[in-house]
Structure formats: structure tokens, C-alpha cells
Amino acid sequence: MISRSMMFMRMQKGIVRGSRAFCSSGKKQKVDFGYEDINFDEKEDRVKEVFHKVANNYDLMNDVTSIGIHRLWKNYFVSQIGPMRKRPVIDAEGNPTEEYEPMKILDVAGGTGDIAFLMHEEVQKQRRTNANAAAEITISDINSSMLGVGMDRAKERGYTNFNWLEANAESIPSLKNDSFDLYTISFGIRNVTDRLKALKEAHRILRRGGRFMCLEFSEVKIPVWKEIYDVYSMNIIPFMGQIILNDSASYQYLAESIRKFPNQDQFASLIKEAGFKHVTYENLSGGICSIHSGYKL
């Protein structure tokens, strides 16, 4: 059995510390941190601080605050990926060879491993009826505490076949161009300082024909439900954070960050701007969250 310290050493060897986001004009550009406007170069550290605080109880609080519904969303999200199977190895000239390799998946902002574990389990399920089902999954997160939780959980489950990478979604230079078949990010893109930059990086990393998939909170489309949800998320969730973890501020930020995130159509336009084609989205639970999808063609 690989100890956590050994696993962390492996991750450290491949560690990527993405370059800081900055304004090319050299001026102090402002960006949202929940309802607070802060300097562009401050957000990365502020977000890191939030997730260092919540990491050990992140999944517990998701269960409590969503009454377990987040697990249904994530299960459905993974079910929409489709077959995960071996693909031909591409040679230096871009032509398929007779050799095959597992589907390569990058799960960004996936530190605690919940989406990656579901994908791994789905591959095992598909393998019962398709011997070619196979995937190599890399879990990337900017936050070492979240990755630590994920590695502990993987060890408990006996999962030893994940790659772990501490990296900023805006810049992952250790990953080559055109190297992954699928890029997933779940409830993470809204915490990124420069979302368009992160989307362009996703486009760079994906192979031609590769797919981008994002599960993220969105704009509720049912008026009555929207009013109830606004009260719940802005008042009850921070209150739960205070009662259960003695930390209302982190959950106040998370609730506010949902309000500041672009709505479904606006985010779809941003995905298109990054270069993706056939961009679509599907609302879940009346638009509380949405699945966004696009392809690199």
C-alpha cells in the first residue's frame, strides 16, 4: 500500500504552479470575490484560503447544504460522458496507429476526487460488457489541501491508478498540447480568476475531437423556486457553515460566488469564445446548476 506521504511526493514531482493572473496593462484590475471587488492578483490566494479551510469537510457540507442532491447531479454528469474506452495512439504526424491507449481524462478542480472516482467506477461498469473500456484519469486542483483529502479517500478505497497534479487551471504548462480526450470541471470554474484564460487552456490541452464538460451552479429559471433558493443559499447555507464548522464566511463567499457567475447563455458564449464548437447546456433542478458541453474540432 502506498503511504500518503509517498503519494504526495509523487504529486510534488509533477507540481505545476501556474503563473499569476495579471492585467496586461499593468493597472490594478478588479475582479469579484463574491460580492467584494478585489485586485485581480489577490483572488487566487483568497480562494485558496477558503478551500484550505473547508477541505476536510467539503463533501460533508455539500451533503448537508444540498440535502444530498449534489450526488445526483454528479452521477448524472458522469452518465452523460458516454463510452470511456481505448483509442488509437496518434503518431507524430497526427495519424492513428495500430496501437491503442486508454482514454485520457483531465478532471480540473477535482481535488477531493468525487467526480474522478465516479468516472473510474463507470469505467469498471462499462468493462463488464466492453473489454476496451479504459481511462487514465488525472486529477488537478490548485489547492493542496483538497488534493490531500482526495488522496486519502483514494487510499481508503484502494484506488492507486490516478495521477495527481497541483496546478492553476489558467496555466498548466506540464500538460502538452492536444493530449487529453476529455476535460471535466465540476463546481470549480466560478472560482477561477480569469475564466476565459482557463477555457482557452482547456482547449489547448484537448485533442481534436476532445470534449469539454462543466457542471456548475447557474441561474434558476423557475421564479418561485428562484426566490426560495436565493433565501436558502444566502442565509441558511452560511448559517449551517457557522453551526457545523464555525465558519460562516467561507460559505457566504461560496453562495455569493454563485450569484456573480455568468448565467447559462453568458457562460456558453464564453466557451465559444475560447474556441469550442457545438456548445450546449442542460439545466438541472430548474437551473440551480447546468451541464455545459463543447468540442474541440
From TrEMBL:
GO cellular component terms, alphabetically, are:
extrinsic component of mitochondrial inner membrane
Gene3D superfamilies (alphabetical): Vaccinia Virus protein VP39
Q: Name one GO biological process term.
A: methylation
Q: Give membrane topology per the record.
A: Peripheral membrane protein
Binding, S-adenosyl-L-methionine: 112, 141, 168-169, 186
Catalysed reaction(s) here are: a 2-methoxy-6-(all-trans-polyprenyl)benzene-1,4-diol + S-adenosyl-L-methionine = a 5-methoxy-2-methyl-3-(all-trans-polyprenyl)benzene-1,4-diol + S-adenosyl-L-homocysteine + H(+)
| Superkingdom of the source species | Eukaryota
Self-association state and partner proteins as the record states: Component of a multi-subunit COQ enzyme complex.
- Give the similarity note: Belongs to the class I-like SAM-binding methyltransferase superfamily. MenG/UbiE family.
Matching entries from HAMAP family are given as: MenG_UbiE_methyltr
| Protein name as annotated | 2-methoxy-6-polyprenyl-1,4-benzoquinol methylase, mitochondrial
Q: Which organism is it from?
A: Euplotes crassus
